[in-house]
Protein 1
Amino acid sequence: MDGREQATAYAEAALENMARHGVPRTPSNFEVWYTHASGRDIDLSKALDILVSNDQPFTDEQNTDIYQRYFNLADTSAAVYATAQEYENSMDTVLDLLAQANNDVEYYGKALEENLGSMGSAKDFKVLRRALETLVSDTKEMAAQNSLLKNRLQVSTTEIKSLRTNMEDLQKEVMTDALTGIANRKHFDILLRQMAAQAMEDGDDLCVAFGDIDHFKNFNDNFGHQIGDQVLKLVGMILTELSEGGTMPARYGGEEFAIILPGIGLDEATEVAEKIRTTVASKRIRKVSTGDDFGTITMSIGVTQFRSGEPLGDLIHRADLGLYHAKHSGRNCVVTERELDQAALET
């Protein structure tokens, strides 16, 4: 199969999958499903497979989130590259200035040595005066060079500080969910790899919880996306407030959240998940400007524990499977991998 035939096959597969799952035929959605069909992005394909296996609807928000998560990093990457390039250029300027200063000092040292030698061997006043005049002239020039160098270094230092701040802001932006202010999927993936490696090295426990807001689509349909956004912000705030001992909450995508729980076993992690669930359920959703009461929301949560050396995909799959069972067990509950094991034994 040549390149054109292969591309046609990918396109047909993409359109077929989009139609099967009710995904609108927009350019961004087509790019997502074409990439999935081609198998070029394993993480994207895995995310789509999980959504499909859990019967998650591909809402406009979900489709936008997927596209932004996997295809909208180009602008950010370009900004990071541009800032890094400016930073490197500024550092080169500083190094050039320092090299110039070193040359100036070396020149001044030689001139000073020569003039002092002339003064020591002077036979008459004219020779001594000429040596002193030269020494004074070289000293003034060196002082001027030092003053210029100081000013240039101050400017370059200010630029470098500004660029460093920009780099830190860009890094934070890349790793943070814009709506909730907590970590995004990318940051979650990075930290999970780091924490799993640390847990294996230290022999510590590590758990992961996946939570999903129940009936969130209906909430959005009934009250609008602005109120839905407020719900997502509220959940993000609750997760942040309940985070302690290195616990790291993240918005995994759409209305799904993930929490990394380092240093604790399954029982303690389940207690944390229950605290999150009950806290979310206790909050009433109100519109501040009007006082309108939209009721309450609930969350379903799956919890699992890392098994040293296992692929992280397996860990995430069990947490997501726990979430799936929580959804199909009446929602507003926590299901751990123990319940999954028991369910497997009973079937």
Note: The mean pLDDT is 79.
Protein 2
Amino acid sequence: MGDGIGPEIVPASVKIIDAAVKAAGVAPIQWTELPLGREAIDTHGKATPDETLAALDTVDGWLLGPHDSAAYPEPHRSMLNPSGTIRKHFGLFANIRPAKAFHGGNAIVEGTDLVIVRENTEGFYADRNTFAGTGEMMPTPDVAIMHGIITRAATTRIAHEAFKLAMKRDKRVTIVHKANVLKMTTGLFRDVCRDVAKEYPEVSVNDFHIDAATVHLVRRADKFDVIVTENMFGDILSDLAGEVAGSLGIAPSINSSDKQAMAQASHGSAPDIAGRDIANPIAMILSSAMLLRWLGAKFDDDAVLKAADIVEKATELVVSEGTMTPDMGGTASTSGFADAVATATTRI
């Protein structure tokens, strides 16, 4: 279930998924908890044990709780964190991160409803952009070097994900880059996305430099539809977009390949509030709904798609009725909010 607030928000999500699956007439899900994070270091000697990876290899999808790798003892702190390890091991190249304001929530920009499509395997995250080793090194104690890697193949792949998603939404894509400075790397990213755009003539396309994109998100996030960008830019923009929509605690995400998918909240483990039953579980709940939707689409299962709809609508209903955790201006506890949403699944 992960570190920090993971043992609070993951069970909350499981409770709601179980309720939604029952309401949709889907067979009950058989859950298996796997070792991960700080506890796994103590019991297995690794934050991401081999047995966890082997078990995940046998399934189509799973929930991942947050991790607090910055607090791990060495050498584990300096290793690729659990999320990065799993994404890299299974080739989960697409990180889809919606940011949607709730009616009755405390959004900075009302009407925000966008999705950030983040390339997950390369870019400027040097701890995961190479086949072996890392793209970061120190030739001397006073010199640090990082490789940023952009490839045509990976950019083409993520661009198609973005445009296919846009075709299901408002048919608008924004490419975010920094080609005025990083001309070869993010310039390649921008140009490949533009080439892919030609295959989707119904979708309108524009682009912004990363610095300009942050300004536009703060001022007019409600004007964006789908944003496609590289790894590090996507991580930064999605956290910003989550706050603009109301709270990072409501920002869900899914990491996927063509074969498997992992639901993971966009936020971290929030160790400062762990164990206090005040963490916002919405991001994890909606990430779980995204996983249900991915599975329903993959297996053409309308009942599973219905379960995803129930999770999302029940969450929206509870927030609209004024039940929210403290980060959204409410007084509900994590468990109390989860109970309210689970009950609301019978009203959808």
Note: The radius of gyration is 20 Å.
Protein 3
Amino acid sequence: MIKIGIIGCGHWGPNFVRTFNKLKDTTVKYVCDLDSKRLREIKKRFSSVFTSTSFRDILKDSEIDAVVIATPAVTHYQLAKEALKFGKNVLIEKPFVLNPQEANYLIRLAKRVNKIIMPGHIFEYHDGVRIIRNYTREGKLGKIYYMYSRRTNLGPIRNDVNAIWDLALHDISIFNFILDAVPLKISADGFSYLRSHIEDVGFITLYYPQDIIAHIHVSWLDPRKIREIVMVGDKKMLMFDDLDGNFPLKFYDKRVMKKKYERPYYTFEEFKMIIKDGQVSTPLIKIREPLLVECESFLEYIKKGRVPEEVLKRGIDVVKILKGIESSLKNKGKEINLSIR
């Protein structure tokens, strides 16, 4: 039986408690938060869970095998370092940490104490995103031209990070995962409307190898909640709508028939002939709860004693890209070259 301690029970912490308690051979023993009211709510829902306002109570409990850190981003590094030194396996809710040096140190420390550390990029465990990755790898979309995402809503508004660190992180993680690549350069603009120095809206452009361009629009100051990604290839196109519980994936058999350009066209009807406007297919796929898959993976990595290197690398890559975005924001949208290997 793997016993879990949850540090932080704000927005995501209770979801981790619920999810781990659903899994076999594991249980949440302890939950920690500075807010006693939140702890009382947790105790009402999960009566067998111990609660505390001190995270050290979790670290000192020899029965706790692993901890989940779901606290404000600025606390992630110190909490993870302490947990590893106490011999705990660690899962960190996004963002992993706030700079690549901290990420590298934690990974080295985990190996030194023979424990694991895992960044919680939840969309890597989303069945829809995994299908898109497979389609891309198999060439079903053809050569990828470009892709874009929109992740907007009215709130929730965070105080520890801006909308880019909060929201765009997901899309950067998804794009890197699908393309199995990292951008060569980036540019970004962001604006602070509600409070100074904390961007509420961001527009980011990422330039990937093979001339693939990706754009991200994020905002927590928007009238509509949108969670969608569009990919355009020379064979097919797709749209992923994470808010569509029935048919989140749509494949469009649409493209420009380039060979038609070998002869001129003189009328609108002739022009329409160069466009293939085929069917839209909506495959019926069973989407498991991504958090459940992520938690299962964490337990599996604990049993194996290691996290795959590519998972750790993707975690560090996202942090490096976000730091590049910060640099572009400070320089009014200047293109920033990235040297990520």
Note: The mean pLDDT is 94.
